[in-house]
Design goal:
115 residues, mainly alpha, 0% strand
């Protein structure tokens, strides 16, 4: 009896701790916000490394990405650590804009006169 009660208490404790993580919406294909942010940072780093992004272009893209991350932290603080579906939609749209901007910067075929 005592063992059953302890097991139940432990299971409820774990479920309560995992609930905020499990409540975070995941976009189709398993791309949650953190994964997209990490992927975009990797694109910026690759662009800087291969020369398709100038230093200033990379900084601008990183500032845009940092702004999205700040907004995400703010929204989480406002709602007790959980993002509402509308918050996720807003953040995903902003990440779409960052991705589009990085793509344009890396493939705009404008030759830099100083390069």
């Amino acid at each position: 009896m005592k063992k059953t009660v302890l097991t139940a208490v432990a299971a409820l404790s774990l479920a309560g701790a995992a609930a905020p993580v499990l409540a975070q919406p995941v976009t189709p294909g398993g791309w949650d916000l953190a994964r997209r942010e990490s992927w975009l940072q990797d694109r910026i780093d690759r662009g800087r490394a291969d020369g398709s992004l100038a230093r200033m272009e990379a900084r601008r893209a990183e500032r845009q990405l940092a702004s999205v991350r700040r907004q995400e932290r703010h929204l989480r603080r406002m709602d007790g650590g959980v993002l509402r579906p509308s918050d996720v939609t807003t953040l995903q749209a902003r990440l779409d804009n960052v991705a589009d901007h990085i793509r344009w910067l890396r493939h705009n075929d404008v030759r830099r006169p100083w390069a």
